[in-house]
Amino acid sequence: MKIATWNVNSLKVRLQHVMDWLRATGADCLCLQELKLEEASFPTDAFLDAGYHSVVLGQKTYNGVAILSRTPLTDLTNNIRRSTTSTSG
After folding, report:
1. How far apart are CA 27 and CA 49, in angstroms?
2. CA dihedral sign of residues 25, 28, 34, 37
3. What is the rounded distance in angstroms from the CA atom of residue 58 to the CA atom of residue 84?
């Protein structure tokens, strides 16, 4: 299984690079950081056409992450909250 991560620093700018890389490597899972776009602008259909399911948590001008996977992603948790209980002494 091939799992990779990529700080794309704007998916709009690098979408074709990501698509080319996925085709060339056949990665099973790709984690993207710094999408710099909101969920509504995420190219879900383009990734589906390339054989990848996606889960995205975007932000307008900075940050944003996505996971692309050849198999559908299940049992997901978004916006994990910080625990108020300390486990350290």
Report:
1. 15
2. positive
3. 25
Label the pairing between strands 29-33 and 3-7. Answer: parallel
Q: How far apart are CA 23 and CA 85, in angstroms?
A: 44
Query: Strand 29-33 and strand 65-69: pairing?
Result: antiparallel
Reported pTM: 0.84
Q: Dig out the tokens for 35 from the structure.
A: 């999408």
Distances (CA, A) of 13 to 7, 18, 35, 73, 82: 12, 10, 10, 26, 32
Instruction: Pull the structure tokens for residue 34.
Output: 């710094």
pLDDT in tens, 12-64: 999 999 999 999 999 999 999 999 999 999 999 999 999 999 999 988 877 99
